Amino acid sequence: MKFILILQLCYAAQNMCLPPMEVKSVYPSHKECAIAGYKQAGSFIEAMDSKLVNDNKMLIKFWCLEKKVVDEKKIDT
User: Fold this and answer.
1) What 3-state class would DSSP assign to 34?
2) pLDDT digits (tens, 9 = 90+) for 36-50
3) Which residues, other chains included, contact 28 with Cβ-Cβ below 8 Å and sequence gap of 6+?
């Protein structure tokens, strides 16, 4: 099994989230996927305008989906 990282941008002040985005990388373990999720979420928030983040109480949700590998170049979705 392999893991695919899913990120979702949310606005806590408005109680809404944008549709989830699938990261193109495939991870060999849940741990590696989770670590990548924390790093990418942090980088995403750091790159945004502070006022925008603070006013909207923006946050990034993420999770790792387990996928069966059909072959090394193709993931069964």
Assistant:
1) helix
2) 999 999 999 999 999
3) 2, 3
